[in-house]
Design a protein that fits this description.
- 4 copies of one chain form a homotetramer.
- Chain A is an alpha/beta fold.
- Chain A has a single domain, classed as Alpha-Beta Barrel (TIM Barrel), CATH 3.20.20.
- Helices cover 44% and strands 12% of the residues of chain A.
- The first copy, chain A, has a 9-stranded parallel sheet with strand order 1-9-8-7-6-5-4-3-2.
- In chain A, strand 5, helix 4 and strand 6 form a beta-alpha-beta unit.
- In chain A, helix 3 packs parallel to helix 4 and helix 10 crosses helix 11.
- At the B-C interface, helix 7, helix 8 and helix 10 of B face helix 7, helix 8 and helix 10 of C.
Chain lengths: 306, 306, 306, 306
Amino acid sequence: SRSQSSPAAGRLDLSGIYPPIATPFTTKEAVDYQRLEENLQKYAKMPFKGLVVQGSNGEYPYLTEDERVEVVRTVRRTLPEGKVLMAGSGCESTRATVELTEKMTAAGADAVLVVTPCFYKGKMDSRALIHHFTKVADSSPVPVVLYSVPANTGLEMPLDAVVELSQHPNILGLKDSRGDITRIGLIVHKTKTQNFQVLAGSAGFLMAAYCVGAVGGVCALANVLGQELCELERLCQSGGWEEARILQQRLIEPNAAVTRKLGVPALKQAMEWFGFHGGACRSPLQPLTEAETQQLRRDFSTNGWL
Amino acid sequence: SRSQSSPAAGRLDLSGIYPPIATPFTTKEAVDYQRLEENLQKYAKMPFKGLVVQGSNGEYPYLTEDERVEVVRTVRRTLPEGKVLMAGSGCESTRATVELTEKMTAAGADAVLVVTPCFYKGKMDSRALIHHFTKVADSSPVPVVLYSVPANTGLEMPLDAVVELSQHPNILGLKDSRGDITRIGLIVHKTKTQNFQVLAGSAGFLMAAYCVGAVGGVCALANVLGQELCELERLCQSGGWEEARILQQRLIEPNAAVTRKLGVPALKQAMEWFGFHGGACRSPLQPLTEAETQQLRRDFSTNGWL
Amino acid sequence: SRSQSSPAAGRLDLSGIYPPIATPFTTKEAVDYQRLEENLQKYAKMPFKGLVVQGSNGEYPYLTEDERVEVVRTVRRTLPEGKVLMAGSGCESTRATVELTEKMTAAGADAVLVVTPCFYKGKMDSRALIHHFTKVADSSPVPVVLYSVPANTGLEMPLDAVVELSQHPNILGLKDSRGDITRIGLIVHKTKTQNFQVLAGSAGFLMAAYCVGAVGGVCALANVLGQELCELERLCQSGGWEEARILQQRLIEPNAAVTRKLGVPALKQAMEWFGFHGGACRSPLQPLTEAETQQLRRDFSTNGWL
Amino acid sequence: SRSQSSPAAGRLDLSGIYPPIATPFTTKEAVDYQRLEENLQKYAKMPFKGLVVQGSNGEYPYLTEDERVEVVRTVRRTLPEGKVLMAGSGCESTRATVELTEKMTAAGADAVLVVTPCFYKGKMDSRALIHHFTKVADSSPVPVVLYSVPANTGLEMPLDAVVELSQHPNILGLKDSRGDITRIGLIVHKTKTQNFQVLAGSAGFLMAAYCVGAVGGVCALANVLGQELCELERLCQSGGWEEARILQQRLIEPNAAVTRKLGVPALKQAMEWFGFHGGACRSPLQPLTEAETQQLRRDFSTNGWL
């Protein structure tokens, strides 16, 4: 395997910080692999545990299947030894997810991040989700990480489904993007015998998530302030809570700006300010308005980042 | 054109009832074109205005693009002269929607039904949606019908976007599946100079929608009780409100059962009871439990349909 | 009894239009009984079925119990023979509701409108609500009308509770303010053997509610455009659906402005424009901003009312 | 003043744990002052910072104003020197809140906890809430603590209103019961120059709240497991994070059971098991069903508390 030692029974150790990398496009909205690689070279110098490719911030719903796989292949070529490549392979149907998971593995993924299917949200109860993720995990050549992101899917993975799925030998953990810290604490509590690994899905509650037992974070903001998020991780891991709190507080507003408030277009704009290639999104995502750009800048500058 | 006369400026007249047809699968979850055609032969005898292919009840998010197009092609071959084939061609990205719209037209669609993109719901404001639907309508060889279905997408098309898009010469109408009757009345009111055609997206509020100015309905329940829904249409159109009310009331619970409460698996189960091929859904949609099947039966039988 | 004949078993006939009257205040925020009476004299000339006193638009949560009763007493003195006085008597606890119901009856109410308790909304399931309304109806000297207004309470009365409570001999009907027309149709359907009377709680869906079987409406907008709402009722009752539709459509935006969008302060501002005493609300309700006032005016003027 | 030294400018120091005490009733639903005092004697032996009287768990919406004041008076008589008595004085109208605040002060409150008015939730924007709380704080003889509890009110105090109100010299802090830890961290960050004191409104996220800068908690569960919550506080304050995490995790399910899942009736049932007087709630709150009681017991026993 390409990635490092794991804590128990040869399991992949997920602990650490991951940027869910953005996908740069050319002015014609084609994937810009050249700029992607330039970003990757910069990320290679940061103490990330790995990269998430095709998370929500990668605009994966706007990519064709071929593009999704090709982006993963590109990242694999560039990624230094020992870094984890976690690839999003979730689709609406179980069969499509199984197939894409295989392709992602062939393209070099160390693990797959599988979002909850969500179109028929009224029917995506624990029974359906347990069935779906079990089928996917049964057939996946690499470990599976569950992905619950209600802001996009309108659906939260039920606690009992998480607990049951945590017992599957090929399901390693959960990326939780809502940030209900009570729920995160309870998931850690109820899965502790499985050594289930919870990743905070946003930088806004990263410190609190560490506090209640998470092992890392997949944070959009790591595309922009990667070094700082790794420093926050180090402080949390080493008990530097006072210093961590001050750093965490300065990250909340910039994080909200590039996620909940202004979304991927803001993330990509901020990347430009911090020396990365961001650029435009695929349509229908629109560029920021002038007022939004100013608000974004303010959310960084009032916290001392610009 | 394959379809009939239109009320103004050569516009396609959408008025009438459409079943959003279900997609039968084999036991191995392959599309069962044979059974699909058998259903189509039965629907051909009913006074539908046309068929919607790849609406939410067609499990389109679980079909590959090739399957989506092939199902439309199959329906085109079978559909009698003069019936409208409305094909779902909505995707998350504008570019994919434009491309699929062309393929659907080539496969024989008379109009396309384009659902709101929804993954980045926080960013799908009027600006983004107007941009998206304008691009799609600009390039589409056939007329476009907007499709707002918040129960699945978590997103309602804003009123101001509907009003602005109603002025596009290639956007004919809206399928509204939430059923906020105040909003439907207001949409009819504010688009009346465009002769914009509103279709009720569910049988539960069909009569009320006619009452406030809708011209028809795309109703899951028409897969099961098609004749009855066409009769309800006739009563509403001819002023038989008392009789209509009694019929409408008997349809609410069966309709809720096959949509909001128990979803596509229930629709397909009920189709079996009424002589159509329903069968299983693609995973992760699960078969009904025994208790759910009984509840479904009760919702039909207590209203005198079984 | 002060009110008129009823359709079955001596039951009070609720059919018709009711303004849920606003409460005028002096500049010191005291109840202005003088101005209240002047409004009542104007309403007396309109073909209302009666008045609702202490509905949400009466700012009842801001009145003391003594004020609530005194306002009802004032209305009773002024109300012409044959008009129905429906008084809001809902409180959070069952015991307080029972007591206030008695006081409202003593003050002259013909019926009481009892809102769902809502503070402990997570516990206000059918069991609790059936218990509450049964106790209140058991002890009330006058008939009880259920009141479901989720925009204020965050709670919708469950359908099964409505159906069960409809069998209570002292529970006559329901004021439904959300306007889910499918639900309203179903309530009418499932309570028809009880001759249960459903009142639309807003002018936005009044015509559609008549269409599916409601018998009248309690409409904030009737404080402003009372004559027009009574005309809409007449058209719906006499089968003038085409004319009704045109009138209904012109009322949706003014109605939304004085309810959902801008609330009681807008209702009171519009009352001033149409010759009634509106005035300021009690704090914390704030006066409209200049921009809001303009928006309000536009919602009336673009529909031809100003 | 009855309470202890404060950190800055003579401000009352709120830091610590408070049970929001339950109100025992007799079998006839009268307030049982005798049993209340017996509970108070037990609480007196615990290292609480003080008591909250008439929080949501005190069933204050079901008490008359006289009862609300009398309960505070009773607590004052019993409360040991140096403990803080925080009394709920929030009403829907500003004028009623001002008056009740004065009565609560006269009855012995050291501070008042003022919930957001919520009936006209669509109009309770920052402008209205800032106006309301400023008026109340201007006139209040004792310091004011803001209280945001969306599970009951359906309304969250907007961040910008909190930040502006934090500058009022008589507004000391906020009880936040939703537990969005990102928001709590941001409130601490943006009010730090005011030394604004944030209290966690539930035991489920108490440790995480301390982690991001809260100074204490008002926790329903402290009525049952008061000693344990004070121990959790001590561990958080002294940097015993590992031990704290284990204790916190064991408290999440019991806490959820007595709050979100089963509410005040469950809190009172659990109090009985742990040696306090709980008893029945006022109607319409219903006793637990047998199944609910078993679920409650399980939530305590599987975490080692029973």
